[in-house]
Basic amino acid ABC transporter substrate-binding protein (Candidatus Caccousia stercoris), 260 residues
Amino acid sequence: MKKLAKIAAFLLAAVMTVSAAGCSSTKTLADIQKSGKLMMSTNAEFEPFEYKDGGEVVGIDIEISQKIAEALGVELEVTDIAFDSLIPALQSGKADLVAAGMTADEERRKSVDFSDPYFNASQAIIVTSDSEIAGPEDLADKTVGVQLGTTGDQYCTNEKGENEYTVAEVRRYNKGMEAVSDLMAGRIDAVVIDNFPAQKFVENNPDAIKVLDTALTEEEYAIAVPKGNTELLDKVNEVLASLEESGELDEIVGKYIAAE
């Protein structure tokens, strides 16, 4: 019996060791510097914050992340994945940080830590040019398209019933453009998405769609890091503060949104 007990204890210890190793995905700054790479994940469907120009992912968040990588003395490695896969990528260690026009809301704070905000934004409502929808209150009996996992998705879904405005039905898309295409085809009544991507969609389809003057929500963008990685979070905040103080942050944003 004692022998069996010892074997059982050994096996339990081994399982616990492997389990702990598997769950340890947080990297120190030294780990990142030793690897020579800062792994940043984003969703390149969010112009002007991140989008594809030819085969390259560019945008505001890419340039900010590049500044963070430079401060660490490493190369920036950008991975383009689905928006709803971004937080899991952080949790699994596949990404060191996420910069994706992501709103620092309380629900996401349960899973990740956020930097200081670097941009004030809003959730805009896109409708067809001839739509009778005039404001958020008119969505109550409408079908609204959103990008899966975004703030617009969370707000329109309204699982806890706490939001000021409601919608009749939510349809989720992997890409904002897919929702806009369905809007123009008459399959949905409106699209809720972040303001600046909304403006870009309208610029590309000025005769077909428009953005309403009244936003659905106001929010702040921040950079996400793995939960509890205060060392990396402090470094990100340090770089953001430096960019803001020097005026470089305004220059980066102005490079992409100067006409807004």
Observations:
- The longest helix spans residues 2-23.
- Residues 106 and 112 are 10 Å apart (CA to CA).
